Structure formats: structure tokens, C-alpha cells
């Protein structure tokens, strides 16, 4: 079963063709980062206009790079929330128009659920990403499978979704069955990275900029960690404010500040997720979302988790349509088909 995935929830216009929920046949991402970088963050109006310009060429390219015809496509999966309303509208309306024109079934996909499903993907052929081949990382499984093979996920598993808008800890009990355990009470982890990078004058997007700057520094500055004991929630705004005060006072090395900030976020994410995994006695942890592209975060998880930790390769952690197609495949398998009145839900949550 070949699914065309479409993703336009924020600042990436993306389309992909995925077979049977795991084999990526094509994966096209048109990033708007260069456009928004000059404003220091995503400008919603600019994002939706850019999606309008690129969505059709991106879909055409996904079909042609997959070397398939429309007759080979069995269904369309599109992100309908959460995200920027104007951006989501472009993807959803184009998906509906194509579905109607080509007489294909359509399913609306929750962007957060799609991030989790990036863990179900395997790389099928040489894609353009320079990170291709890095594959999934696993630890604690007696005889590790070769990289890039489809990963067997066992339920129930614990999912940490860390992106620009969310830091959610979710128990996944089966396909499409989620229970939210924790969320951020203020800034999401990615948002905190983005704001910290702005404080330190490191540009946008902040996560990769902080990660890069941190390689030249040591985490020697004392920054607070909000543990929120007894709760699976996260909070990163106090950490951000503490960094701001340090930067205001001056005299700190940007590299040391980046390394210290990065470690503070990682400490909290790793400790609280592992604590929840132990409490709930789950057998696996699935990482996802743009922040999961952070190498140190992955390393800390792999070094301290008592259960296997799965994480997609970095280019499948950040927004893409392959994860949407993978998630859509399971929707179709379980009969979750949308009507043509599918609408965007910008504040959609998971579980
Ligand atoms: O999942 P994503 O691509 O988009 C949303 O759904 O929000 O996540 C984007 C977020 C941004 O805040 C970005 O700074 C962060 O992920 N990010 C990273 C890294 N790469 C992207 N954060 C830390 N380290 C990274 N390497
Ligand atoms: Zn995302």
C-alpha cells in the first residue's frame, strides 16, 4: 500500500511516498528556514504564502522521485493539526483537491502522532539527505538488528515528543491509542532552544545553533532545572530567564552558555522520561520531534536508559511528510478515513 503524505503545519512544505508504513520511496522537504531566519522566527503569514507557492511542485517531485504514477497511490495522508492555521489550510485543501481529482481516500493526521511514526520508517533508497544511512539507534536489545531495518515497536511504549511547539510525554498503548502523561507548562523544549539562541545571538533555528556552539564550550555555568516532582510535566521558562540574566550581566562565553543550557534541558528530558518509563514499566522509549535530532540528547538517553530507546535519524526527527504517510498507513489499516469536510484544528492535542 503506497501512501502520499503531505505536511505543511509550520515552515516546511513536504510531500513523501511511503510503502506499507515503513519504506520511504520519496521524501521531499522544501524548507523555509532561510526566509524566516531574517525575522528570527516563523512569520505565520509568510509561511502560508510560501506553502502556496511550493506545495504543488513539492507533491509533483515526490511522485516523480518515487517513480510511481498516480494509479500506484492508494491514499493520501495530510497533517490537519496542531500547527499554524494558515499553513495547515494549504496542505489540507490541496490534499482534499487531489483526493477528489484522483478519486483517492484521504485521512487527516495529527502532527504529533506523525512524529512518533517516524520511528516506524526505514530508509529504502539513497535519499538526498546528507544524514542518510545514520539509521535508528537502539540499546539494550540483545542482538541488535542492522541499521535501517524496520524497527519492531512493542506496545505499550513511552513516547517523548520534543518539538518547537510541544514537549509531550505520551503512553502509546497501540496504533492510534495514546494517553498523555505530561506536557510543557510553558515553553516547549524546541521553543526554549530557539529563545536561548536569540538571547545568545546565535540565530534561527536555535536547536542546531546551540548544539553547534556548545561543541566549543563546557557546561560549566550553573543553570536551574525544574524537576516538578510528582508530575510528568516539563517547564523550561525559568531556565530561559536564568540564561537571560546571565547574558545581561555579561562576561560569559557564548559557547559555555550554549553547552550549559543544552545540558540543563537534556538532564530534565532524560531523567523525567526514564523515571516515567520505570514507573509505568514500559519496555521501550520512542523519541521524536526536532529536538530529538540533538546528538547529546540521544547519547544521554542511550547511556542511561534501562530499556531500548528508538530515535529516527535526524532528518526524520524534524518536520517531514514521510512520517505523515507512515502514520496515515495505520489509519487506513484501521479504517480511519476522513470525509471531504476535513478541516484544520490548529490546537489539536494527542491523548
Ligand atoms: O519537529 P520540528 O521540526 O517542528 C515542530 O513541529 O515544531 O521541531 C523544530 C524544533 C525547533 O525548535 C528547533 O530549534 C529544534 O526543533 N531542533 C533542535 C535540533 N534540531 C532542531 N533542538 C535541539 N537540537 C537540535 N539538533
Ligand atoms: Zn513537528
* Gap between N and C termini: 27 Å
How many distinct helices?
11
Provide the β-strand percentage band: 15-25%
Q: Kindly state the mean pLDDT as a whole number? A: 91
Instruction: Return the string of H and E elements.
Output: EEEHHEHEHEEEHHHHEHEHH
- How would you characterize the largest beta sheet? 5 strands, mixed
- How are strands sequenced across the largest beta sheet? 3-2-1-4-5
* Strands, total number: 10
Question: What hetero molecules are in the model?
Answer: 5'-O-[(R)-(carboxyoxy)(hydroxy)phosphoryl]adenosine, zinc ion
What structural class do helix, strand and pairing data support?
alpha/beta
Radius of gyration, in Å, reads 20 Å
* Low-pLDDT segments, ≥5 res: 124-150
Q: What characteristic shape results from the CA principal axes? A: globular
Bin the helical content. 25-40%
What order do the helices and strands come in, and which of them pair?
Blueprint: E1 2-7, E2 12-19, E3 23-31, H1 33-37, H2 44-65, E4 75-81, H3 85-102, E5 106-110, H4 111-117, E6 157-162, E7 167-174, E8 177-182, H5 189-199, H6 206-214, H7 237-249, H8 254-280, E9 285-288, H9 295-304, E10 309-310, H10 314-317, H11 322-333
Parallel strand pairs: 1-4, 4-5, 6-9, 9-10
Antiparallel strand pairs: 1-2, 2-3, 6-7, 7-8
Structural account:
With 351 residues, the chain is of the alpha/beta class. It is built from 11 helices and 10 strands. Strands 3-2-1-4-5 form a 5-stranded mixed sheet, sandwiched between helices. Strands 8-7-6-9-10 form a 5-stranded mixed sheet, sandwiched between helices. Strand 6 (157-162) and strand 7 form a beta hairpin. The longest helix has 27 residues, at 254-280. The relative contact order is 0.19. Residues 111, 115, 163, 289, 319 line the site of zinc ion (ZN).
Amino acid at each position: 500500500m503506497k501512501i502520499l503524505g503531505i505536511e505543511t503545519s509550520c515552515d516546511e512544505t513536504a510531500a513523501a511516498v511511503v510503502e506499507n508504513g515503513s519504506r520511504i520511496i520519496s521524501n521531499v522537504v522544501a524548507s523555509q528556514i532561510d526566509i524566516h531566519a531574517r525575522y528570527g522566527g516563523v512569520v505565520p503569514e509568510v509561511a502560508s504564502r510560501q506553502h502556496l507557492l511550493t506545495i504543488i511542485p513539492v507533491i509533483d517531485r515526490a511522485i516523480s522521485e518515487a517513480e510511481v504514477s498516480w494509479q500506484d497511490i492508494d491514499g493520501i495522508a495530510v497533517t490537519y493539526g496542531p500547527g499554524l492555521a494558515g499553513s495547515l489550510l494549504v496542505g489540507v485543501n490541496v490534499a482534499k483537491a487531489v483526493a477528489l481529482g484522483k478519486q483517492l481516500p484521504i485521512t487527516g493526521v495529527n502532527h504529533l502522532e506523525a512524529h512518533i511514526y517516524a520511528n516506524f520508517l526505514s530508509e529504502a533508497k539513497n535519499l538526498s539527505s546528507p544524514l542518510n544511512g545514520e539509521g535508528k539507534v537502539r540499546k539494550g536489545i540483545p542482538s541488535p538488528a542492522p541499521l535501517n531495518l524496520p524497527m519492531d515497536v512493542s506496545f505499550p511504549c513511552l513516547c517523548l515528543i520534543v518539538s518547537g511547539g510541544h514537549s509531550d510525554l505520551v503512553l502509546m498503548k497501540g496504533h492510534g491509542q495514546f494517553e498523555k502523561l505530561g506536557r510543557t507548562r510553558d515553553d516547549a523544549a524546541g521553543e526554549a532552544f530557539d529563545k536561548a539562541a536569540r538571547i545568545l545571538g546565535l540565530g534561527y533555528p536555535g536547536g542546531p545553533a546551540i548544539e553547534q556552539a556548545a561543541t566549543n564550550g563546557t557546561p560549566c555555568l550553573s543553570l536551574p532545572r525544574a524537576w516538578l516532582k510528582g508530575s510528568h510535566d516539563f517547564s523550561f521558562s525559568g531556565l530561559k530567564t536564568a540564561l537571560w540574566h546571565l547574558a545581561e550581566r555579561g562576561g560569559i562565553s557564548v559557547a559555555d552558555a550554549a553547552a550549559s543550557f543544552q545540558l540543563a534541558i537534556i538532564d530534565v528530558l532524560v531523567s523525567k522520561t526514564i523515571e516515567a518509563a520505570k514507573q509505568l514499566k514500559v519496555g521501550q522509549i520512542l523519541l521524536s520531534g526536532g529536538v530529538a535530532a540533538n546528538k547529546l540528547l540521544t547519547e544521554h538517553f542511550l547511556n542511561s536508559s534501562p530499556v531500548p530507546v528508538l530515535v529516527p535519524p535526524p532528518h526524520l526527527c524534524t518536520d517531514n511528510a514521510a512520517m505523515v504517510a507512515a502514520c496515515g498507513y495505520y489509519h487506513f489499516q484501521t479504517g480511519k478515513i476522513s470525509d471531504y469536510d476535513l478541516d484544520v484544528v490548529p490546537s489539536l492535542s494527542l491523548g
